[in-house]
Write a structure and sequence with these properties.
four-stranded antiparallel β-sheet; 1 helix; Neuraminidase; mainly beta; 1% helix; 299 residues
Length: 299
């Protein structure tokens, strides 16, 4: 069984930029730049090697999780609007989901695409809290995991927990979803048609699950999550990024000096982890690449 040092070049952790309020939702564009959200400031920021940090969007509807489609349109979870939106390369913006029935979604949080280009997203309540969202009453009486089919139809997949970070395994036969208050990760089998089965606990006891009065994690909790090309799961938690092998055993922790909210793969070889950690953006070189997704083949 590998150790964390077999997967990560631990001595390469580097802080790229700091001075932010709370960073989230990093996504590396194949054109070689990073987008991330600074939610309390209501900004989407950009980092690239030549220009450093610039503002990509203001206001940004307190956006959180982001990913790219096969055609490099940007998918965005917005706290302020309780919506999932797509921003096309042409600049056109389209709302993909904002309501379940006649009730407004809570606050879409994190987002991934499936093998058939379906969109899966989590909808906890954190975007209805102050600072990182807009304080307001919850319209729904549950927190859900949803799927947007290529046809545009919205499906509710699971509603018995408070989902947060999510990621697919290589091969798209597993979907991992974490639950911040319960400090664990669940795993669902994914059928060829994109439907889910199972949902058993994959790994538990990741921190205390304590969240502060304004929604911020205390001490590090399950939040953002990604998978590498070997099937290892990388989940935020106490002291940094927890690395869990496909059988469910923790291989160790990649240490980060601030509470980590999210992470994503980047650079031309997809062997760098970009880390959104409270007030700063870090990166670390890896000995493995990220789980290959369609947008990674572009550019």
């Amino acid at each position: 069984m590998p150790e964390v040092a077999d997967l990560a070049e631990l001595d390469t952790l580097e802080r790229l930029a700091t001075g932010f309020s709370f960073t989230e939702g990093p996504i590396w564009h194949p054109e070689q730049y990073l987008l991330f959200s600074d939610m309390p400031q209501d900004l989407r920021r950009r980092w690239d090697p030549d220009q450093g940090i610039t503002v990509a969007m203001s206001p940004a509807n307190k956006c959180n999780g982001m990913t790219l489609t096969r055609g490099l349109s940007l998918l965005v979870c917005e706290h302020s609007t309780s919506s999932v939106v797509v921003e096309h390369p042409s600049g056109r913006r389209e709302v993909l989901a904002s309501h379940w029935g006649d009730r407004e979604l809570n606050a879409p949080n994190d987002i991934v695409t499936g093998r058939d280009d379906s969109i899966y997203f989590s909808d906890p309540v954190y975007g209805r809290m102050p600072v990182d969202g807009i304080e307001r009453d919850q319209d729904l009486d549950f927190q859900g995991l949803y799927r947007i089919l290529p046809s545009g139809e919205l499906q509710l997949l699971v509603d018995d927990f408070q989902p947060n970070g999510l990621c697919f395994s290589p091969g798209y036969d597993r979907l991992y979803v974490n639950d911040t208050p319960r400090c664990h990760i669940r795993v669902f089998g994914v059928a060829e048609n994109g439907s889910l089965r199972g949902g058993e606990v994959f790994h538990e006891n990741i921190g205390t699950g304590v969240v502060g009065p304004t929604g911020e994690p205390e001490g590090g909790v399950p939040d953002g999550m990604k998978c590498d090309e070997l099937g290892n799961v990388y989940c935020t938690g106490p002291d940094g990024i927890w690395v869990i092998e496909p059988g469910g055993s923790c291989l160790g922790v990649i240490p980060v000096p601030e509470i980590v909210a999210n992470l994503n793969w980047g650079d031309s070889d997809w062997k760098t982890l970009y880390v959104a950690a409270t007030t700063s953006i870090y990166r670390i070189r890896m000995r493995v690449a990220g789980h290959p997704e369609p947008y990674m083949q572009a550019g």
